[in-house]
Amino acid sequence: MGLLDGWASGYPHSLHQFLPSFSLYSCDCWDPETERVTFSDLMEGLVSNGINPFSAFGVNSITTKHHSHFSVPPSLQLQLHLRNNPHLVRMTNHSFKVSASSVGGPIPKVPHFHNTIPSKETIELWRNVDAVCFDVDSTVCVDEGIDELAQFCGAGSAVAQLTASAMGGSVPFEEALAARLALFNPSLSQLHNFLHQHPPRLSPGIEELVRKLKAKRVHVYLISGGFRQMINPVASILGIPQENIFANQLLFGSDGEFLGFDKNEPTSRSGGKATAVRQIRKAHEYKSLAMVGDGATDLEARSPGGADLFICYAGVQLREAVAAKADWLVFSLEDLINSL
Question: Residues with Cβ < 8 Å from 66, sequence gap 6 or more?
Answer without folding.
Answer: 1, 2, 39
